[in-house]
Amino acid sequence: MDSQLSLIEESFNNRYSSWVRDALDDLPDNFTITDPSISGHPIVFASRGFLKMSGYSREEVIGRNGRIFQGPRTNRRSVMEIREAIRQERAIEVNLLNYRKDGAPFWLLFRMSPVFGKEDGRVTHFVAVQVPIVSKKHRRNNGVSFSEDGESGGLREIVFGSCRREVCSDSLLEFDRVLALDSDSRGLEIQDSCEASDLEKQRAATAINNVLSVLVNYSESTGRSVCGKRCNLPGMSFISSSLHISLGRIKQSFVLTDPHLPDMPIVYASDAFLKMTGYDRHEVLGHNCCFLNGVDTDTATLNQIMESIQTERACTVRILSYRKDNSSFWNFLHISPVRNASGKIAYFVSVQIEEGSKNQDRHGLSPEMRQLSAVGAIKVAVRSLSMSAGTSKS
Amino acid sequence: MLRIKRVPTVVSNYQKDEAEEGAPRGGGCGRNCLNKCCIQGAKLPLYAFKKVNQTETEKGLLGHETKELPVEFLDSLLLGEWEDRVQRGLFRYDVTACETKVIPGQYGFIAQLNEGRHLKKRPTEFRVDKVLQPFDGSKFNFTKVGQEEVLFQFEASEDGEVQFLPNAPVSVENAPSVVAINVSPIEYGHVLLIPRILECLPQRIDHESLLLALHMAVEAGNPYFRMGYNSLGAFATINHLHFQAYYLAVPFPIEKAPTKKITTSAGGVKISELLNYPVRGLVFEGGNALQDLSNTVSDACICLQDNNIPYNVLISDCGKRVFLLPQCYAEKQALGEVSSELLDTQVNPAVWEISGHMVLKRKKDYEEASEENAWRLLAVVSLSEERFQEVNALIFEAIACAGNANEDIAERSLGEADDKPQSHEEVDAINNSSCPAMVSGTHECLVLQ
Ligand SMILES: Cc1cc2nc3c(=O)[nH]c(=O)nc-3n(C[C@H](O)[C@H](O)[C@H](O)COP(=O)(O)O)c2cc1C
């Protein structure tokens, strides 16, 4: 956990300098910032307003995923919409039911936006603004308005709870006769939802812009600029943030290499790989895996690996590998091709296990099984994430 | 009697040589299967899940977060065991080498070109007018699969803690439920959950089995791992109780469809109706405890099968949402009411197809796949609006009778049959501009008793 917190600190300070926190703290809005490249996609910053609204302390929130604020009555379809927006690296605005630390539910207008790094066009962070929906009188039902007593000419048996009532009571709402429809499909679920006023929408939009402009400003001071718009750099090879999120969940030591680039460089390295080998991420990305080999590495084994790559087959070998500090270890290495949605090989994955290292899985899944499960998870992620148009190259 | 001809799916490597049973080699039948002949001394990994009483605790969200594992254990176990079977060459083809795409459009139907899945099998006749049929031990069933096709045993833990034993004996007294591979996968991780396999239960949902399936979805903890069920008459091909599941990390069209809440049950289960989707169906979500969701859904399923109405079930979003879809495609097919154009595609609209994941056998169909085509096929699967409301009335009555619902449901469901609320007809009329035309469902599925 400590290493994750330091990762979080680092991720933020490197990009925006350590003064950015003070500037963000000066903003009055409720917002959180997350980092998709850290395993679990945790919150890395929470504003004072947000903490006050949710009832949590900063320590309880940093390092956690935003889903901890959801509860049994949170609309699952809205959650899915957020999940997909993250996957596609696009902005979204939905009404969402969240729960305070004391368990009390409340409606909020959730607006989220990706932040792109200018150097490679990758999503570096997501910003979300949470505007509580407080208005009671301004309930707007897709153009049909109702008086408080429910007596709207011709519409029989309609009882409209306010947002709060809908949240707190189990009252059965009869909406059979109202098919309040508009082109926005969300409108169809209005009875279980809460419509934000235009003012609240305005507030959310302004708040997002305020946060983004602070981030943009401070990123310029470190020379690692960000922007709120996708900046496509042709010819750059990178892994989409959604693939990052999926890969970040996998705890094993592994790297992905791209066979379509000259010298088959590493395009992704897991945290566990860096820890095991002692390298920094920037020292391995873009490089061929051969830096792991040393004087006593067996060439016959290396040839075996080469051959399996050429024949596009999986292989498992035991090979002597070297860390950055030049110390060596026996590496139980599994290499497998990984295909994209068109069925073509997109990457080779290699998963390392240090022989003799303690079995850390508390349930006792064997190292071999964990190795294969990482391969499976990577195959699913790469195949699925290359299926739809509209996501960045992966 | 209504029958259709279709190519049965080969789910096990022991299915194809059904006719040519060889002489036993060594002990048992020589296949190392799960029958009495071979089960003695058999060992398989065992995963015992913790029974949680609440789907999610309303209070104490903090307690909840501490057990937030980065990768859920069952997820790793399943993926690891499945990849192991890939390496051992047990599958008929590499599903990750099959081309797949999201079809452009509002819903994002998913198409896969799978030319190998139905090779080498001749069409067989299936009876489609009886949702409940007795188990027939002479036909293929899962006790005949080889032990190498079984990934692990899955059960509730005795002491309330998650447990994993890499090598647990398979004991008949324990009534083991197992997870086995489907050797003709339609996506990565395609498995079958076979509740109490040795009891040879026919394809028929009961409270206990549905709860087991929901537990598996919860335990996997991955929103892209979905579970499905096909009743007989709704494209189940094997009459031995089983659920299916696989991974596909994109949203299914059915999950994106808007819904309209109908009511909330006494157990807190929200029941809605799918809107703007070609197949009419119900969505169940929430519930004070997993058990509430499970009971409500299984009451509904039991009602359908008892009334001889074929149906499909999709368990999505880590067991938080369940879709229930009564259907009548096979019946229409048997009555000659499905166009040859649709039949030629050989797409059998089972749970995955209904959810929007289309597995196509012909390159031509894959290349021409469009939202309109998918919609046209699924519209034929759906009950008519009138019939759907009738079926809903049956379902709500069953739920209310089972004591899981408050009076509101009972009132509503009784009132529904004669005083029909306006619904899809209007929805379709209003939203026609944004969706492909709906094939009007004039055909009524008969309840064949
Ligand atoms: C910047 C950011 C902030 C978020 N804040 C919240 C929040 O306050 N409340 C909430 O319910 N979900 C929030 N989420 C959404 C969840 O983190 C998560 O993405 C969502 O539940 C869907 O993914 P899941 O299926 O992994 O849970 C936030 C997401 C991001 C990217």
UniProtKB/TrEMBL annotation, chain A:
Domain PAC: 90-145, 313-367
Keywords of this entry: Chromophore, Flavoprotein, FMN, Photoreceptor protein, Receptor, Sensory transduction
A Pfam family of this chain: PAS_9
Domain PAS positions: 16-89, 266-288
One function term, GO molecular function aspect: photoreceptor activity
Listed GO CC annotations: nucleus
Listed InterPro entries: PAC, PAS, PAS-assoc_C, PAS-like_dom_sf
Keyword Flavoprotein recorded: yes
GO BP annotations listed: response to blue light
Coiled-coil positions: none
Keyword Flavoprotein: yes
Name of the protein in question: LOV domain-containing protein
Species for this entry: Dipteronia sinensis
Automatic annotation (TrEMBL), chain B:
Compartments, record wording: Cytoplasm
Residue stretches making up the GDPGP1-like C-terminal domain: 253-400
Top-rank taxon: Eukaryota
Cellular component per GO, a single term: cytoplasm
GO biological process terms, semicolon-separated: glucose metabolic process
Domain GDPGP1-like N-terminal, residue spans: 74-246
Alphabetical keyword list: Cytoplasm, Guanine-nucleotide releasing factor, Hydrolase, Nucleotide-binding, Nucleotidyltransferase, Transferase
GO MF annotations, alphabetized: GDP-D-glucose phosphorylase activity; guanyl-nucleotide exchange factor activity; hydrolase activity; nucleotide binding
Primary localization class, coarse: cytoplasm
Membership in a protein family: Belongs to the GDPGP1 family.
Protein name as catalogued: GDP-L-galactose phosphorylase
Species of the source: Dipteronia sinensis
Organismal lineage: Eukaryota, Viridiplantae, Streptophyta, Embryophyta, Tracheophyta
